[in-house]
């Protein structure tokens, strides 16, 4: 087994159920920084973790700026209901009452 094959298997285990377009897990960010500091190119690390080149670059940029692997809090007011509940809210015509399905 080559080193890259082992790294890809390790990255797949860290990635778990994350699909593309979703936020990297903290363990993935730690491993990304370790590989970049170890001399791997951004392109190589992105291929290993199945993420975009921009995700690797922004992870490294955030680490260099804040020296943390944590994600910054999101801006804006939090929603009062979860996404699933919000989708299930139904408006009854002629009424101001909202019900859950």
From TrEMBL:
GO annotation terms (biological process)? DNA-templated transcription initiation
MF-aspect GO terms: DNA binding; sigma factor activity
InterPro entries named among the record's database cross-references: Homeodomain-like_sf (IPR009057), RNA_pol_sigma70_r4_t2 (IPR013249), WH-like_DNA-bd_sf (IPR036388)
The chain positions of domain RNA polymerase sigma factor 70 region 4 type read 23-62
Task: State the coiled-coil residue ranges.
Answer: none
- Output the superkingdom of the source species: Eukaryota
Name by which UniProt lists this protein? RNA polymerase sigma factor 70 region 4 type 2 domain-containing protein
Native source species: Colletotrichum lupini
